[in-house]
Amino acid sequence: MTVTDAGRAAEWAEFLDALPCHPQLAERVLVLPGNHDVNIVDRANPARLHLPTSPNRRLRRIRVLSAIGALQGQRVRVVDRATGRLGGSLAEALEPHLGEMAAFADTGRPRASRALTALWTKVFPMVLPPDRDDGLGFILLNSNADTHFSFTNALGIITVEQARGIETAVAQFPRACWVIALHHHPVEYPRAVKTLAERIGAALINGKWFVRRLRPLAGRAVLMHGHRHIDWIGECAGLLIVSAPSPVMEATDDLDAYFYIQTVAVGVDRRLRLLHPQRITVEGQLGPLD
Q1: What percent of the chain has pLDDT over 90?
Q2: Helix extents (H) in 19-54
Q3: What is the pLDDT of residue 102?
Q4: pTM of the full predicted structure?
Q5: Strands 221-225, 239-243: pairing kind
Q6: What is the rounded distance in angstroms from the CA atom of residue 141 to the CA atom of residue 25?
């Protein structure tokens, strides 16, 4: 779910330039922020600190919001916390701030970004409502913790406000089923890992609380995430969980990579089910000297 390696403008530009070449994919893509998009401090210096007043993280957030707005701004909606219902589109939420976002991107002055901090919190979760009352909707979360240190940039957390936003969307469509997407894994998996750091340094630190909060959605929701680069499908508290493998992590161009296309279906008992996934293999390409 991470789109970039370090939230650089050039990385976002390359992604946005490539997507129109695949129009059928582009019209279906939904993006949420990963830790590489917003929390990487310095790829060349893991010990570097980010002060809370540093403009760099705010700048990365602006890039994320700008890219997400361009991709899905007209399709997803934000939660209106004042009314307790879904509000307008993401594009409508961003529109009053576009000038401010551009000014901060040009100058980097903290004063120009005060309202942008509140905006970042306001637009999550993003909700693609079902097309009918008993259809399938999508809820996109920001699970990245606010950190200022490279060694903790992979940590995740789901805020109470986002959990309430999920409940708002679900209450508005009580017969619908949901795909809830986040970057971090909500539970640990029954399989060995390479190091203890993979369990602690990359965790959703309130994952157990989050799963308990979603128990009313048992049988009606599937949680989809990335981050761990682990190929795993399971269930916890009645919630289906899909962990997406990474087709690029620790891969070289000459090796085959793969990803899955997941298909969901609703049974006669109105419970959401995962059908057998379709594995797509991307064949490696030999270099000119091979």
Answers
A1: 58
A2: 23-26, 35-38
A3: 87
A4: 0.92
A5: parallel
A6: 21
